[in-house]
Amino acid sequence: MKKLFVLFLAILSVLVLAEVKNPDTIIDATIGEPDTLDPHYAYDTASGEVIYNVYENLIAYKGESLTEFEPRLAERWEILDDGKTYKFYIRKGVKFHEGGDLTPEDVEYSFERGLIFDPTAGPMWMLWEALFGVDSLETFVEEKIGKPYSELFDENGEPLPEYRDALIKIYTDYIDPAIEVEGDAVVFHLVRPFAPFMYILAQSASWSAVLDKEWCIEIGCWDGRADTWWKYHDIRKEDSPLYARMNGTGPFKFVEWDRAQQKVILERNDNYWREPAKIKRVIIWGIDEWSTRRAMFLQGDADICAVPTQYLEQVEGKPGVTVIKGLPELAVTSLHFAWNVPEDSKYIGSGKLDGNGIPPDFFTDENVRKAFIYAFDYDTFINEVLKGLGRKIPTDLPEGLLGFNEELLNDPDAPHFDIVKATEYFKKAWNGEVWEKGFKITLLYNTGNDVRRQAAEMLKAYIEMINPTKFKVEVRGVQWPTYLDATKRGEVPVFIIGWLADYPDPHNFIFTYYHSAGVYSGRQGENFRKFISTPHPDLGGRSLDELIEEAIAKTDPAERQALYEEIQRFAMKHALGMPLYQPLGVRVQRSWVKGWYYNPMRPGDDYYVLWKAEE
């Protein structure tokens, strides 16, 4: 009888383990939280994942494809005028979550608001480049008016009288005509053909999301007028009315962003224009501490889990767990240097080369940059920390895109681990003062990202080993929004950052990292921007900026390949960055999660296609 009872309990326990928990809810245990919920400010995957599921674009990538598109808020489209005009016919009968009807005017307003807002280090540079051939609103204004943007306004932010009319014309004569409503359609007019334009519109992370014009104006976004637009340009993140509010047309509605718990809650949109999602509720929960996240996942209280590669063995082979490894990612993770930081930065110690800090322009010395690059064991990091789920790359251009050439890894200037060379360059740095006086520097990482933490700790270990009494590296973890803000303000002298492709073209990586107007150039400082915008003899008297601009203008793949290889050789020769690895993705979920598919251009999960069922 006792044996039968024990057997009964064993069978019962198996049944309990097999039971699908919270069948109507997807709980995604991740790290960090969104930076913002404003689609035109957000430029990180944590924010993008939420936006992706609440808002919608005109078009979307078709399933797993990186080259095919399918309709979303546009029913169909036409590409005219040899690629300079794009016409999208807007779907009828679509409702925003707050009850408004989708109209072509909403689409026009959404893109114009994004172009006007254009936050510093935000994503809108892509649309400025595609539509107008410049990198930002402020660059465009300076080109048209002939004076720097900052000199056009008084101390209260109001236009100086002599420039007011010219500023109004920036909207009436340029921005407004570039995006027009024609009946049921919206038409985009580009200044020249730009091949990645459809990719930009399809990437649902944020920048091409469609907003409800009337609702946005009502809550305090740009009022749609030509004579006020500058009041809504580059406002502070938290001052945006969309910072923590959402109203999209997508399959899920925004319910709550609990900042204390790093938790975002979404609920199903039962009035969605397609079939409603199978799941009623989504909880995206930033749980930075791995052991807590692991316990929650293995108990079945989370359905999807962010698992650092070094901990994969703790979940692989467990009952009810599915692990998919080796997913090709169009992404890089790299370390970059700020060539000058503010003198009051909290991360440079004394601010002097006295053994207790570094000067603000410490990394202008190429010897310092090269010493750091040679002081990292790339192969061991990929094999032991990433468990082989990464690729060594010569620059910040991932394998799989035009311009990549694995042979560049054999170039003498390619990043590789060499303590002898690292020592030699440290001894040369700052005319020998670095070796003699020593330095102290802070290396930040975002809390919960154990891979970045271990990268920082490996670099610290080797640098301190080279000169144990005089070289000091502090590794410090901070919350993701804090990390992101500090890097955007250029306060962090050394930062580890990832880049997931906005669109599958080499320009998206090369421009981002190596052009003076790229997203990461501001974080690397004015000295960096001057260096890459200045003509160099080893580029035939051209600047790196000019070479990058030439590469995107070419249509012949062979010509582009040659130019991108030349750009990368220059970047390696002058130690413009330190590519740590190209990740191979890992997906970890409960086996009861169904419907998942992989597309490397997606900023996170597409919860619309997921459901839960017993195996």
UniProtKB/TrEMBL annotation:
Keyword Hydrolase set for record: yes
Q: Which Gene3D superfamilies match?
A: Dipeptide-binding Protein, Domain 3, Periplasmic binding protein-like II
Record flagged with keyword Chloroplast? no
Q: Which residues form the Solute-binding protein family domain?
A: 68-519
Entry EC number(s):
3.1.3.26
Q: Which residues form the signal peptide?
A: 1-18
GO terms for biological process, alphabetical: peptide transport
* InterPro entries per UniProt: Peptide/Ni-bd (IPR030678), SBP_5 (IPR039424), SBP_5_CS (IPR023765), SBP_5_dom (IPR000914)
Entry GO CC = ATP-binding cassette (ABC) transporter complex; periplasmic space
Q: What class of enzyme is it?
A: hydrolase
Can you tell me which family this protein belongs to? Belongs to the bacterial solute-binding protein 5 family.
Protein name (record): 4-phytase
